[in-house]
Amino acid sequence: MVTNILHYEITAGILGTAAVVILVVALALNQASKNQNAGRLAFQTYSGPTLGTPGTDEGTPTHIDPSTQWTYKSYPPTNGPHYSVTGSAPAPWGTVDNLVEGQFVHNLEHGGIVILYAADLTTPQVDQLRSLVRQLQTAGFAKIVLEPWPDMPKDSKVILTAWNWIMKLPGIDAVSIVKFTKAHHASPESPEPTVQ
Q1: What's the average model confidence in pLDDT over 62-79?
Q2: Residue, of 192 and 31, whose pLDDT is higher
Q3: CB 132 within 8 A of CB 177
Q4: From CA 76, how far away is CA 72, in angstroms rounded?
Q5: pTM of the predicted model as reported, rounded to 2 decimal places
Q6: How far apart, in whole angstroms, are the C-alpha atoms of residue 39 and residue 147?
Q7: Tally of CA atoms within 13 A in the half-sphere of 37 that contains its CB
Q8: ω before 76 within 30° of 0 (cis)?
Q9: Both 148 and 98 in a single domain?
Q10: Is the dihedral angle over the CA atoms 91, 95, 96, 102 positive or is it negative?
Q11: DSSP class of residue 168?
Q12: Residues forming a β-bridge with 165
């Protein structure tokens, strides 16, 4: 009987110690998660006023041959005819270099957001944009293309485009980028918002 009591006390001690260790580890992981997420922006659904200005109507969103040089009415375009080439039009989602308008307009047709930035942004500024795009994609806004754009107007450093929408920014404005993305990502206004 004394052996059973001693065995019970040892087992209870081990289980109690294990419970305390599990609790301490859980609290530490919870705090680490809070610290890691402290610098992230909240990505809940946007329900404010429409962000951006309507883009110029570029015509029917038809697929055109990539050997055709299409002239858009406004740059960057937010809709219209565009290329369709497996693997390059639409462009892969994420950070891409050296796209032409006919490629990324196809991404807009699929409900994507194209973020164009001035070629003279510093490396830390480009890294900031890349980080923001990764955060947005992780939060469920996967259809984003980030692209340097050599034809940036003098009054802008970043231009956001969605199907029929454009927003020009004089610098990197994370809040506006997030709001524009939430307002227009996979919008039913685009012809094919459910296509990847």
Answers
A1: 92
A2: 192
A3: yes
A4: 8
A5: 0.76
A6: 24
A7: 10
A8: yes
A9: yes
A10: positive
A11: E
A12: 54, 162
Residue 31 covered by a domain: yes
- Are 114 and 22 in a shared domain? no
11-40 average pLDDT score: 59
Answer yes or no: do 159 and 84 share one domain.
yes
Give me the pLDDT at residue 153, please. 92
34 and 59 inside one domain:
no
- The first and second tokens of residue 33, run together, are 């998660």
Task: With beta carbons less than 8 A apart as the criterion, state whether 172 and 158 touch.
Answer: yes
Q: Does the pLDDT at position 116 exceed 70? A: yes
In angstroms, the CA 104 to CA 100 distance is 7
- Rounded to the nearest 5°, which phi and psi values hold at 92? -60, 145
Give the structural domain span for 93: 53-184
Residue 40 has pLDDT above 60, yes or no: no
Please give the Cα distance from 53 to 183 (Å, whole number).
Answer: 12
